[in-house]
Amino acid sequence: MRWQEGMIYDRTLVDVTNRTAKAFFNVSDWLRIFGNSKIANQLLNVYLSLAVPFTELSAPTITTFPAVADINTLIQNIDLVRAAAYLPVATGIVALKYDYVAGNGATAPDYTSVNAWEQDIQLIRDYLISSANYLINCGVGTCGQVRFWQVQFRSWIYVSVAGSPVRRPRCGIVSSGSNLMRQTLWRKY
Q1: Which of 18, 70, 74, 143 is geometrically suited to a Cys-Cys bond with 178, CB 3.0 to 4.6 A?
Q2: Is residue 103 in a domain?
């Protein structure tokens, strides 16, 4: 499965009233949104090691209509990935409503809702890919081994040498099980 370009999140009321191509929500839009939200979920798993539950949906055809439960599941998948990505509101990402009900007079997603779905997916993908440049690969820090073994990973090419002799954590997870001096030695550079 590949990322499908052409996310549309600039629909306007003029598009709807003039019945332009962006005004209609069809099977290709559904498949693009579902496929791209699945890829955003996989990127979240690869880059941040977060496993977000993702509900599979059957692919619609031109002769089928999605039920309200299908629409809510599609939106909930996107919103779970959005919540796990934890992007700041300043990026333009918004919480999505996924509690629609069937029936006359009930609220239904409109063009602004679909814009929000597609924009959230696009923002998640863009920010996860751009954040990959800021990840630090530092190897595995172990405690309890001989001293030369603990500092081996600091000489890898992935970690640059610091300009000043300060202590900063090199990775998010510190393994423990030895005395304090040994645990903090590997974080110095």
Answers
A1: 143
A2: yes
